[in-house]
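Predict structure. Chain length: 267.
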Amino acid sequence: MKTLFSCKNTLLAAAVSAALITTGCNKPAAQAAAPSEVELTTIEQKVTYIVGYRMAKQAQQGEFALDKTVMGMAIQDVASEKEPRIAQEEQQKIMMEFQTQQEEKRAAEAKKLGAENLAKGKAFLDENAKKDGVKVTESGLQYKVISAAEEGAASPKAEDTVKVHYHGTLIDGTVFDSSKDRGEPVSFPVSGVIQGWVEGLQLMKVGEKFELYIPAELAYGENGTGPIGPNSALVFEVELLEINPEAPAGHGGAHGAAHGGDDPHAH
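Prediction complete.
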């Protein structure tokens, strides 16, 4: 039975890259010329291209440089039905060792970035604390009242649910999430968000708009999340719209918004 990667049908050669494998089944890689373009007409060709593209893309995203000559040799071995040059048990050990190396590399990079972010955040907050209207709480949270509420307006408690509009940025102004940009406020439990929000919300009254300047230890700390790097200080503009809003009929309510995973302020 003809295999997908046989000599007569070297589809993966064109798919992974022009130099990934040789143009002839027996020609040494060093002597091989780049294969010509292959028109993707059959389903086998298209599937092969997808497999090759995804494989190369995965390696690229993992910051791993594929050795094209070795990759070609491996494909040729499979096509020729040869035994693998590395035994299966040894393959597992090697891959585990490689995975450990990659994890250690990522951890070292995250530690370095975290230290840099921590220093930048401290410098930003030290300067920000000197600005007019900025107040600093005992925890290190900084806030500024942008617009005050009417007299007698209520403040939320930890057990309440709130409805807010927010706009979140890193200290360099990069926007990582914004209900204002989406044009739709969100509702969530006060106690279901990062500590800087838990404290900041309870300082606010309905109708007020604050700017919160949150140190890393009151945000996502050394882990970070998504576009928020490790030990990042954050800036939020927050407008408190309601306390304990009614959930729309057929909607999951405030808990869905707070714990849905898309909101940067959720735990």
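Summary: The chain has seven helices and seven strands.
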